[in-house]
Write a structure and sequence with these properties.
By secondary structure, this protein is of the alpha+beta class. The protein has a domain of 99 residues. 35% of the residues lie in helices and 19% in strands. The protein contains 4 helices and 4 strands; from the N terminus they run H-H-H-H-E-E-E-E. It has a 4-stranded antiparallel sheet with strand order 1-2-3-4, with helices on one face. The longest helix is centred in the N-terminal third of the chain and has 22 residues. The termini are far apart. The relative contact order is 0.17.
Amino acid sequence: MQRHYRRGACIILSVTFAFVAGCSPSRKATPPPAVTEESAKKVLAEVIAGVAQKGVAGFCKDFAIGIGACSSILDQALEDCLMPGPPPVIKRSAAVPAIENRQGGWVLGLEGHTLDGQRYVSEFFVAMDKDRPRAHVGVYWTGLGLGDSPLGPDYTVVPQRACQG
Protein backbone atom coordinates (compact mmCIF):
# COMPACT_ATOMS: atom_id res chain seq x y z
CA MET A 1 0.00 0.00 0.00
CA GLN A 2 2.79 2.40 0.90
CA ARG A 3 4.50 1.69 -2.45
CA HIS A 4 1.35 2.72 -4.43
CA TYR A 5 1.05 5.88 -2.34
CA ARG A 6 4.66 6.82 -3.03
CA ARG A 7 4.26 6.23 -6.80
CA GLY A 8 1.07 8.32 -6.82
CA ALA A 9 2.81 11.12 -4.93
CA CYS A 10 5.72 11.03 -7.40
CA ILE A 11 3.33 11.24 -10.35
CA ILE A 12 1.45 14.17 -8.79
CA LEU A 13 4.72 15.98 -8.02
CA SER A 14 6.02 15.34 -11.54
CA VAL A 15 2.84 16.66 -13.14
CA THR A 16 2.82 19.66 -10.81
CA PHE A 17 6.47 20.43 -11.58
CA ALA A 18 5.86 20.13 -15.33
CA PHE A 19 2.86 22.46 -15.06
CA VAL A 20 4.72 25.04 -12.96
CA ALA A 21 7.83 24.86 -15.15
CA GLY A 22 5.73 25.22 -18.28
CA CYS A 23 3.85 28.23 -16.89
CA SER A 24 6.65 29.95 -15.07
CA PRO A 25 7.21 33.64 -15.80
CA SER A 26 10.81 32.94 -16.82
CA ARG A 27 9.56 31.17 -19.94
CA LYS A 28 8.35 33.78 -22.42
CA ALA A 29 5.74 33.05 -25.04
CA THR A 30 6.99 33.43 -28.57
CA PRO A 31 5.35 36.50 -30.10
CA PRO A 32 3.63 35.97 -33.42
CA PRO A 33 5.77 36.87 -36.41
CA ALA A 34 5.41 40.46 -37.47
CA VAL A 35 3.95 41.48 -40.80
CA THR A 36 6.62 43.15 -42.92
CA GLU A 37 6.30 45.44 -45.91
CA GLU A 38 7.54 42.59 -48.10
CA SER A 39 4.94 40.14 -46.76
CA ALA A 40 2.17 42.75 -47.13
CA LYS A 41 3.16 43.27 -50.78
CA LYS A 42 3.09 39.51 -51.31
CA VAL A 43 -0.43 39.31 -49.86
CA LEU A 44 -1.56 42.16 -52.13
CA ALA A 45 -0.10 40.36 -55.17
CA GLU A 46 -1.97 37.16 -54.19
CA VAL A 47 -5.26 39.07 -53.80
CA ILE A 48 -4.83 40.84 -57.15
CA ALA A 49 -3.97 37.56 -58.90
CA GLY A 50 -6.94 35.82 -57.27
CA VAL A 51 -9.37 38.51 -58.43
CA ALA A 52 -7.89 38.40 -61.95
CA GLN A 53 -8.25 34.61 -62.10
CA LYS A 54 -11.68 34.04 -60.60
CA GLY A 55 -13.33 37.41 -60.04
CA VAL A 56 -14.95 38.17 -56.71
CA ALA A 57 -16.70 34.82 -56.19
CA GLY A 58 -15.52 33.48 -52.81
CA PHE A 59 -13.26 36.53 -52.42
CA CYS A 60 -13.77 37.18 -48.70
CA LYS A 61 -13.42 33.55 -47.68
CA ASP A 62 -10.28 33.16 -49.76
CA PHE A 63 -8.48 36.38 -48.86
CA ALA A 64 -9.83 38.17 -45.76
CA ILE A 65 -9.42 37.75 -42.03
CA GLY A 66 -12.46 39.95 -41.37
CA ILE A 67 -14.92 37.96 -43.48
CA GLY A 68 -17.99 39.85 -42.22
CA ALA A 69 -16.48 43.28 -42.86
CA CYS A 70 -15.15 42.12 -46.22
CA SER A 71 -18.58 40.80 -47.24
CA SER A 72 -20.29 44.09 -46.33
CA ILE A 73 -17.74 46.19 -48.22
CA LEU A 74 -17.75 43.85 -51.22
CA ASP A 75 -21.58 43.83 -51.34
CA GLN A 76 -21.59 47.64 -51.33
CA ALA A 77 -18.94 47.76 -54.07
CA LEU A 78 -20.98 45.38 -56.22
CA GLU A 79 -24.16 47.37 -55.56
CA ASP A 80 -22.27 50.47 -56.75
CA CYS A 81 -20.92 48.53 -59.77
CA LEU A 82 -17.32 49.09 -58.63
CA MET A 83 -14.95 46.43 -59.91
CA PRO A 84 -11.16 46.44 -59.82
CA GLY A 85 -9.34 47.59 -62.93
CA PRO A 86 -5.61 47.22 -63.60
CA PRO A 87 -3.38 46.41 -60.62
CA PRO A 88 -2.89 49.40 -58.31
CA VAL A 89 0.43 51.07 -57.56
CA ILE A 90 1.80 51.11 -54.01
CA LYS A 91 2.47 54.76 -53.16
CA ARG A 92 3.05 54.61 -49.41
CA SER A 93 3.59 52.04 -46.71
CA ALA A 94 3.73 51.96 -42.92
CA ALA A 95 3.76 49.64 -39.94
CA VAL A 96 0.57 49.69 -37.87
CA PRO A 97 1.31 49.17 -34.17
CA ALA A 98 -0.94 46.97 -32.07
CA ILE A 99 -2.79 49.00 -29.45
CA GLU A 100 -5.44 48.04 -26.92
CA ASN A 101 -7.85 45.76 -28.80
CA ARG A 102 -6.48 46.45 -32.31
CA GLN A 103 -4.14 44.01 -33.98
CA GLY A 104 -1.02 45.44 -35.53
CA GLY A 105 0.21 44.79 -39.04
CA TRP A 106 1.19 46.69 -42.16
CA VAL A 107 -0.75 49.10 -44.36
CA LEU A 108 -0.07 49.77 -48.03
CA GLY A 109 -1.31 53.00 -49.60
CA LEU A 110 -2.63 52.11 -53.06
CA GLU A 111 -3.57 54.21 -56.06
CA GLY A 112 -5.45 52.68 -58.92
CA HIS A 113 -8.46 52.82 -61.18
CA THR A 114 -11.70 50.88 -61.11
CA LEU A 115 -12.79 48.92 -64.17
CA ASP A 116 -14.75 51.98 -65.40
CA GLY A 117 -11.64 54.20 -65.06
CA GLN A 118 -12.34 56.03 -61.80
CA ARG A 119 -9.35 56.85 -59.61
CA TYR A 120 -9.23 55.48 -56.08
CA VAL A 121 -6.74 55.73 -53.24
CA SER A 122 -7.13 52.93 -50.70
CA GLU A 123 -5.38 51.54 -47.67
CA PHE A 124 -4.72 47.81 -47.81
CA PHE A 125 -4.21 46.45 -44.28
CA VAL A 126 -2.42 43.15 -43.70
CA ALA A 127 -2.34 41.39 -40.31
CA MET A 128 -1.40 37.97 -39.02
CA ASP A 129 -4.02 35.24 -39.25
CA LYS A 130 -2.73 32.43 -37.07
CA ASP A 131 0.75 31.95 -38.52
CA ARG A 132 0.52 33.75 -41.86
CA PRO A 133 -0.15 37.28 -43.07
CA ARG A 134 -3.52 37.91 -44.74
CA ALA A 135 -5.55 40.89 -45.85
CA HIS A 136 -7.83 42.16 -43.12
CA VAL A 137 -10.60 43.11 -45.56
CA GLY A 138 -8.92 42.85 -48.96
CA VAL A 139 -11.38 44.88 -51.07
CA TYR A 140 -8.69 47.24 -52.28
CA TRP A 141 -10.55 49.13 -55.07
CA THR A 142 -13.13 51.03 -52.97
CA GLY A 143 -11.05 53.88 -51.57
CA LEU A 144 -11.52 52.78 -47.98
CA GLY A 145 -8.89 53.03 -45.26
CA LEU A 146 -8.11 52.61 -41.61
CA GLY A 147 -9.40 54.89 -38.91
CA ASP A 148 -6.41 56.63 -37.32
CA SER A 149 -4.16 55.54 -40.18
CA PRO A 150 -0.39 55.92 -39.99
CA LEU A 151 -0.59 57.19 -43.59
CA GLY A 152 -2.37 60.28 -42.31
CA PRO A 153 -5.90 61.66 -42.25
CA ASP A 154 -7.89 62.10 -45.44
CA TYR A 155 -5.52 59.87 -47.39
CA THR A 156 -8.17 57.90 -49.28
CA VAL A 157 -10.15 58.79 -52.40
CA VAL A 158 -13.47 56.97 -52.84
CA PRO A 159 -14.75 56.35 -56.39
CA GLN A 160 -18.33 57.29 -57.26
CA ARG A 161 -21.13 54.86 -57.95
CA ALA A 162 -20.51 53.44 -61.43
CA CYS A 163 -23.98 52.06 -62.21
CA GLN A 164 -26.10 53.76 -64.85
CA GLY A 165 -29.38 55.12 -63.57
